[in-house]
Amino acid sequence: MKQIVIAAVLVLSTILITGCRGKKEHQLSRYFSNTQVASPGDSSDLAGLPEQFRYPGAEVRCAGQNEEPHLNSGHYLLATRDGLATVKAFYQQALVTMGADFGGSYSDEMVTFDATSEDANQGILCALVPQDTGTLIIIINWAKH
Asked: pTM for the full model?
């Protein structure tokens, strides 16, 4: 579990540092050998994200998937014009639907959620960041296989 959290933090940091622009595939491939990175606006790249975590009408700013021998993971940067409270309520309900215990931290500047399934075979980290024009949604999900 500790390795998954460390990998998730690396992916999240990479997304935020690169801004999902420019040479993103090259930059991410330095960290993960099997990473596929999408172009902004390509909603087809949400295929690896469970349906209940796809925020309705959100714009895909960046999406990528990493496949390793025993673990698949995905990272997603979405943007919506909806306010933080609306987006937070959506993701709280999505986590209940997942059927996992979840934790989180809440402030006016950022909301974070993390959850792991009861069998510890899948999990998700989600950060919601309010912007002047709506909310940024950062999601990292993983599943063992």
From this structure: 0.72
Rounded to a whole number of angstroms, the distance between the first and last alpha carbons of the chain is 15
Strand ranges across the sheet with 35-37: 35-37, 59-67, 71-80, 134-144, 122-131, 111-116, 102-106
Going residue by residue through the chain (145 aa), what tens digit of pLDDT does each one get? 444 444 454 455 454 444 454 444 444 444 444 444 444 445 557 878 888 899 999 999 888 888 888 888 899 999 999 999 999 999 988 888 777 677 788 888 899 998 888 888 888 999 999 999 999 999 999 888 7
Q: What CATH architecture is 2-144?
A: 2-Layer Sandwich (3.30)
DSSP 68-118: -SSEEEEEEEEEESS-HHHHHHHHHHHHHHHT--EEEEE-SS-EEEEEE-T
Task: In whole angstroms, give the CA distance from residue 38 to residue 19.
Answer: 13
Q: How many alpha carbons lie under 13 Å from residue 124 in its C-beta half-sphere? A: 28
